[in-house]
Specification:
This protein starts with a helix and ends in a 7-residue tail after the last helix. The protein contains four helices and no strands. With 145 residues, the protein is mainly alpha-helical. The chain has a domain of 54 residues. The model has no long low-confidence stretch (mean pLDDT 77). The chain is 54% helix and 0% strand.
């Protein structure tokens, strides 16, 4: 015996109505199961009510004057590189070479000047900077100084 097409449609409609009814019942049940007098809800309301609100209505002359603080580096630490001159030159050159390679701007960040105190250290820095820059611009792995 052949089933009518309407029997399949009726079954689909019934299943759809049952699923929809269960969803509505589930939503209503979940909404009412968490009542407003539950411990979680009252703790949440209490925490919302205890938020501090600043008093901005006080006149400025009543408020205590705070001295302005300025943080300044110690004068003996400004400009001093704690790395050895050759290592610092190589690392700085390599970093500049990599940046110029990535940006496709050769020699844009090239600067081999340094603040080392002696001419020998400045010379060592410049030579190592050239080597590091060459490795960085060519994309070679960083070698130890």
């Amino acid at each position: 015996m052949k089933q009518n097409k309407t029997d399949g449609n009726i079954a689909t409609i019934i299943v759809t109505l049952l699923v929809g009814g269960l969803m509505v019942f589930g939503i209503i049940f979940l909404k009412t199961s968490v009542s407003e007098t539950s411990a979680h809800h009252s703790a949440m309301v209490d925490s919302l009510l205890t938020i501090a609100i600043p008093d901005t209505a006080a006149p400025i002359d009543i408020l205590p004057q705070q001295p302005e603080t300025i943080s300044v580096a110690l004068p003996d630490t400004i400009g001093k590189d704690k790395r050895p001159a050759a290592a610092a030159g190589y690392e700085d050159g390599y970093r500049s070479g990599c940046e110029d390679r990535i940006n496709r701007t050769p020699q844009a960040g090239y600067d081999e000047s340094s603040t080392f105190p002696t001419p020998q250290e400045r010379q060592a820095y410049a030579e190592a900077y050239r080597r590091g820059y060459e490795h960085g611009i060519k994309g070679k792995a960083q070698a130890p100084a």
